[in-house]
From TrEMBL:
Residues 8-232 form the ABC transporter domain. Keywords: Amino-acid transport, ATP-binding, Nucleotide-binding, Transport. PANTHER family: ABC TRANSPORTER ATP-BINDING PROTEIN (PTHR43820:SF2), HIGH-AFFINITY BRANCHED-CHAIN AMINO ACID TRANSPORT ATP-BINDING PROTEIN LIVF (PTHR43820). It comes from Planosporangium flavigriseum. This is ABC transporter ATP-binding protein. The keyword ATP-binding applies.
């Protein structure tokens, strides 16, 4: 396998929940470095795409990780291969302390405790606090920290800044920016200012398929394209740089930009 082989190749992925198809026919790649943002309107299937890649929901299609097919593997095997997952729900063990939450996540002999402590000094101070009593942002940091303790070759991170105060959004983005220097990230993120800061590339899903792949900054600079693909206006800082388009119902365009 050459160094140019993407770390993740997704070909014609479809996925279903309780017999209902929630991802139709999604194809894209993730390179071996940097942040690739997976974008799309609400309910378009971004979370389900991540869950399909991980085998957490029923899926069909080809998924290759570092050149190897993983689409028939069970989730625990996929995680063992080196894919870390930071789910949208954060899923901390609320009755356990911060330290216990982190210890439980350690899959290897020499976990990156110092790296994580440097990124999240707040968690070091709160190591004995029950995770259920942490703020949403602090719980998100625990969730990201757990993924960073191990030698992952890819991180799947789902809406890490959702519902967080602006200051905490910045802290979580800082941590992900630092992490992305050592591990490629596939990021689902609604806050386009965060996408602009973190992402190198964007992959946009419209109507169950990938409708656009491109350079992150160039895509976000094209306000008309953003409005058509995502139904948001760029530039309203009160909404993390985005605001619903007046005609947000339109624009699920069939044309393939990819
Ligand atoms: N447990 C479930 N049972 C039934 N339908 C579901 C379930 N989870 C998701 N769906 C449906 O699957 C579709 C895709 O959902 P998904 O969460 O993947 O979208 P998304 O793009 O991540 O959305 P958002 O940006 O709002 O988080 C939606 O129509 C959603 O209603």
């Amino acid at each position: 396998m050459s160094a140019a082989t993407p770390i993740l190749e997704v070909e014609h992925l479809s996925a279903s929940i309780a017999g209902q198809q929630v991802v139709e026919d999604v194809s894209f790649t993730v390179p071996r470095s940097g942040v690739t943002a997976l974008l799309g309107r609400n309910g378009v299937g971004k979370t389900s795409t991540l869950r399909g890649i991980l085998g957490l929901i029923q899926r069909r299609g080809i998924v290759k990780f570092a050149g190897e097919r993983i689409d028939t593997m069970q989730t625990y095997r996929i995680v063992q291969k080196g894919i870390g997952y930071v789910p949208e729900e954060r899923e901390v063990f609320s009755k356990l302390s911060v330290a216990e939450n982190l210890e439980l996540a350690e899959r290897q002999k020499n976990p990156h405790r110092e790296f994580v402590a440097r990124l999240f000094p707040d968690l070091v101070q709160r190591r004995d606090q029950q995770a259920g009593t942490l703020s949403g942002g602090q719980q998100q940091m625990v969730s990201v920290a757990r993924a960073l303790l191990n030698d992952n070759q890819l991180l799947l991170v789902d809406e890490p800044t959702k519902g967080l105060a602006p200051k905490i959004v910045n802290e979580v983005a800082d941590a992900l920016a630092a992490a992305s220097k050592t591990v490629p990230i596939l990021l689902v993120e609604q806050n386009l200012e965060v996408v602009r800061r973190l992402a190198d590339r964007v992959v946009v899903i419209v109507g169950g398929r990938v409708a656009h792949v491109g350079d992150a900054a160039a895509t976000l600079d094209d306000a008309d394209l953003v409005r058509r693909l995502l139904g948001v206006h760029v530039g309203d800082s009160a909404h993390g740089g985005i605001a619903p388009a007046r005609n947000a119902g339109e624009g699920a365009e069939g044309g393939q930009h990819a």
